[in-house]
Amino acid sequence: MTGPHLMVPLLDLQAQYRAIGAELQSAVSAVLESGQFVLGARVEEFERDFAAYCGSRHAIAVNSGTSALHLALVSAGIGAGDEVITVPMTFVATVAAILYAGATPRFVDIDAATWTMDPAALEAAITPRTRAIMPVHLHGRVADMAPIVEIARARGLVIIEDAAQAHGAQYRAIRAGAIGDLGCFSFYPGKNLGACGEGGAVVTDRDDLAERIRMLRDWGQAERYRHVLPGYNYRMDAIQGAVLAVKLRHLERWTEARRDAAAAYQALLANLPVGRPAACDRNSHVWHVYAVRVHERDRLRAQLAEAGVSTGIHYPVPVHLQPAYASLGYRRGDFPVAEQLAEQTLSLPMFPELTRAQIECVGAALSTLLPNNSARVVAA
Length: 380
Ligand SMILES: *Cc1c(COP(=O)(O)O)cnc(C)c1O
Fold this sequence. Notes:
This protein is α/β, with parallel strands linked by helices.
């Protein structure tokens, strides 16, 4: 590479703070002055705004995406003896939440093009114990929901979307999280809509489930000290509610910037021996992660780091091969598409403030490092 060295981080939360810091400070100050630190008016305001944004009747704010998934399952009555179908190519929280509820995770492989749940593999995984399907909108791309919804409706199964990476993504003009019965979001700082700490939410159109989740997040109380359900302390902090209400107003603009960055990568990498994400409708992806498939991923990753380009891996080991979940009884070879993606996936820098110069720097580093002449393009 020629020219001055430009460092390109994988994610730059300080760039976001530079842009909206003043707004965040005044929102946080107002909470400090109010003396109300848990739930309350700021959290309710965020819940109203987020429900409207998703096009859902209800949003219930909680203290993490993991708690959102857990309460979605519990509210639907899913527990011991029940099976929940999900994918092994996800963050472990998806699977952990199923186990927290006392249920058993059953995996199906992902589709080789979209990297989300393969609807064609679904029927074979359904047993008399199956109660729910939990698709994951990996990297911010909405899973192919129409066949999943059709199978779930025919079998009377609950659909819980893990939309932790997909705030605002759309499937046939419906927002992620509002397609199934319940949708779960994370507001972990690095997510597309991130708190200044931990946070999560469940969205649903079902009044009964929303009411139950509201009670479950706050010790199962129907009113103060009347505990009608065995509940949890999963409440959202007021500071996070205030921060999220501010940030939600910027989310569409940030998402558009991510889409522009992804489009720039798609064009820039077109002639390089990398497997790019499958083309999709602009609205259906919010590019939480922009990942390519490459051979000899780990070596390339180290070389990119030397060239000043930070990368990530989402995720290097599928959940069915993680030691913590060995007791589920899966083995290498059970989900070949997920296993191959885990070996080849490489996440490039992606955040709304990413500049054209930074994107070009990533492209230049890749074209220098990848052996154009000999390499086979990795099949998408
Ligand atoms: C981040 C994430 C979660 C967990 O959310 P937390 O807020 O970290 O608890 C669950 N599922 C997926 C797919 C995620 O990316």
